[in-house]
Write a sequence for this structure.
């Protein structure tokens, strides 16, 4: 949704057993560390790779995130508590996307734009940058253009990106710090880091979100703490404690008073900034990977490792929608986002799809077969990514659905037809987070290649 209110930006989780069999060695098994590099769940202390056309070689960097234990073992070999989701190591590295030779006929491609060879495309069907390219769907009329605005270098995986409501700033979350950049210049203006935290090991910031007035930035991290920073003074205004596992997603309500959080401890919590306390604790059966608050501030949606999307009324904690079953995702849900109308919801999953849902107009779910509450219906499923969908969002006008994937691509989708307009390849590792500017015309991406990027999009005016 727009931070656009309600865009969730989680990290990565290990794939299911079926996916492991399909994709070869399990991605959650870290590659053997090279001599001199630190081994561990996040493979830290990487030297900067040599730059070639603006990019280095593919770094085997961990993209942190929630996950289910394998054989009841934790990331460092310790036994985990049974029946409890635990963080696992995850490489985040994707193999180079193969380009078939010869490429398939356009009419056979559908939304699988990654199957097309840019070298075989006509000039009006592609856009090339120095170290990126975009392919436009040859089967639909091209109406968009895209271009790179700023390249924001980091020293670790960029787990999340988020714009301020006025669109002047973009925040990123990475290892041990959140950083704020001025959108007009691309310059870093603030770095927020808690110096009281133990300096040993990694501490990834999994989620960031600005308060509506732009004065504060909330950060959620692996240490189970939510910190609300006063941006101007670079000091912590409030710390919320209570989660029992890593925090993967945050969202500020439009009233500026409430913050929603999702954690691997199976809970969605709502925090009250005015009274500095927890105001709501919603427990489910599995780890929560993503949360989003509706534009009105009345509802909170969450995606989970159990493949479901749930929506609650924040005012009373009542579950008003559970979106799963036959129409639902077939694997963990990684990202949810509200549309600007507050009744449209999109979700992205490890099943490689995005789904659009229409919530019931009266927001009252009914009892369905099996006793499940259903307060919405599936509008359509978007298929075209070659790997896990890690982040989804809608532009502030609701005209486009954005998605970022482990296939390193960003796609723009037409929500009315389900067709993809374009596929952007602008990173050398998983695109973990996508975020449109609330003011339109810009979007940001965060990746396992240690870069965040700001892009512009707009009407296509011909070559």
């Amino acid at each position: 949704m727009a931070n656009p209110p309600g865009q969730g930006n989680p990290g990565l989780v290990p794939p299911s057993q079926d996916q492991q069999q399909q994709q070869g060695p399990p991605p959650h098994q870290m590659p053997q560390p090279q001599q001199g590099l630190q081994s561990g769940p996040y493979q830290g202390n990487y030297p900067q790779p040599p730059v070639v056309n603006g990019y280095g070689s593919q770094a085997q960097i961990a993209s942190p995130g929630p996950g289910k234990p394998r054989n009841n073992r934790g990331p460092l070999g310790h036994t985990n508590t049974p029946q409890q989701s635990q963080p696992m190591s995850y490489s985040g590295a994707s193999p180079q996307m193969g380009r078939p030779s010869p490429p398939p006929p356009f009419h056979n491609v559908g939304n699988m734009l990654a199957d097309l060879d840019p070298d075989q495309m006509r000039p009006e069907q592609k856009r090339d940058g120095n170290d990126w390219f975009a392919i436009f769907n040859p089967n639909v009329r091209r109406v968009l253009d895209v271009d790179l605005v700023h390249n924001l270098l980091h020293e670790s995986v960029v787990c999340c990106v988020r714009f301020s409501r006025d669109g002047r700033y973009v925040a990123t979350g990475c290892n041990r710090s959140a950083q704020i950049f001025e959108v007009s210049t691309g310059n870093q203006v603030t770095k927020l880091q808690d110096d009281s935290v133990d300096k040993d090991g990694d501490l990834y910031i999994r989620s960031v979100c600005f308060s509506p007035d732009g004065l504060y930035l909330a950060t959620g991290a692996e240490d189970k703490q939510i910190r609300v920073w006063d941006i101007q003074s670079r000091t912590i205004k409030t710390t919320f404690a209570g989660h029992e596992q890593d925090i993967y997603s945050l969202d500020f309500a439009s009233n500026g008073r409430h913050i929603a959080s999702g954690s691997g401890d199976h809970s969605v919590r709502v925090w009250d900034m005015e009274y500095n306390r927890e105001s709501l604790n919603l427990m489910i059966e599995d780890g929560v990977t993503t949360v989003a608050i509706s534009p009105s501030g009345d509802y909170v949606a969450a995606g989970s490792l159990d493949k479901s999307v749930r929506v609650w009324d924040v005012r009373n904690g009542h579950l008003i929608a559970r979106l799963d079953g036959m129409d639902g995702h077939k694997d963990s849900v990684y990202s949810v986002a509200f549309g600007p109308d507050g009744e449209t919801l999109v979700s992205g999953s490890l099943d490689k799809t995005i789904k659009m849902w229409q919530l019931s107009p009266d927001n009252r779910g009914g009892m369905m077969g099996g006793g499940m509450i259903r307060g919405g219906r599936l509008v359509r499923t978007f298929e075209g990514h070659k790997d896990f969908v890690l982040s989804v969002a809608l532009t502030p006008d609701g005209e486009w659905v954005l998605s970022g994937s482990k296939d390193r691509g960003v796609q723009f989708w037409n929500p009315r037809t389900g067709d993809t307009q374009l596929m952007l390849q602008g990173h050398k590792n998983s695109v973990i987070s996508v975020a449109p500017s609330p003011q339109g015309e810009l979007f940001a991406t965060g990746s396992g290649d240690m870069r965040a990027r700001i892009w512009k999009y707009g009407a296509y005016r011909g070559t």
